[in-house]
Known about the structure:
Elements: H1 7-21, E1 25-30, E2 46-50, E3 57-61, E4 65-72, E5 75-82, E6 86-91, E7 96-99, E8 129-130
Parallel strand pairs: 7-8
Antiparallel strand pairs: 1-2, 1-6, 3-4, 4-5, 6-7
Protein name: Stringent starvation protein B
Organism: Thiobacillus denitrificans (strain ATCC 25259 / T1)
InterPro entries: SspB (IPR007481), SspB-like_sf (IPR036760)
Amino acid sequence: MAEISTKPYLIRALYEWCADSGYTPQLLVAVDGRTRVPPAYVKDGQIVLNISAGATRNLTLDNEWIQFSARFGGVSHEISVPVDRVAAIFARENGQGLHFEPVDAGGPTEPAPPAQGDAAPPKGRPSLKVVK
C-alpha cells in the first residue's frame, strides 16, 4: 500500500491554527503548469495566496488539490493548486508556519481540475519561523 503524505494534513492543521488564533493563513506556492493562478501576481515562479475564510469562497483543502475562488484586483478567479506545489503555509501576522519542499510531478503537465473567494494581492516577502 502506498504511503499517504502528511503534507495535506499539516496544511489543514496550520490553516485551522491560523483561523483559531485570529491570524491570516497564507500559502506560498511554487507555480508550474498544473497550478491555476492569475499569472500577473506570480513573481519569480512563486505566488502568495491569502486562504482565509474572508478572502476565499468555496475553499477546499483535500489531499491532492487546494481549490477556491478569489478576487485579484477586483476580478474573480478560480484557483487550483496541487498540494505538492505548496512551499509553505504561514500566518501573515507573525510568519509562523511550516515550509515544505515543492515536489515536481515528474510527468507531463496535466491541466488543473475545475476550481471552486476574495484574496488580496501578495504584500512583501513572507518570513517564516520554525515551529517546534
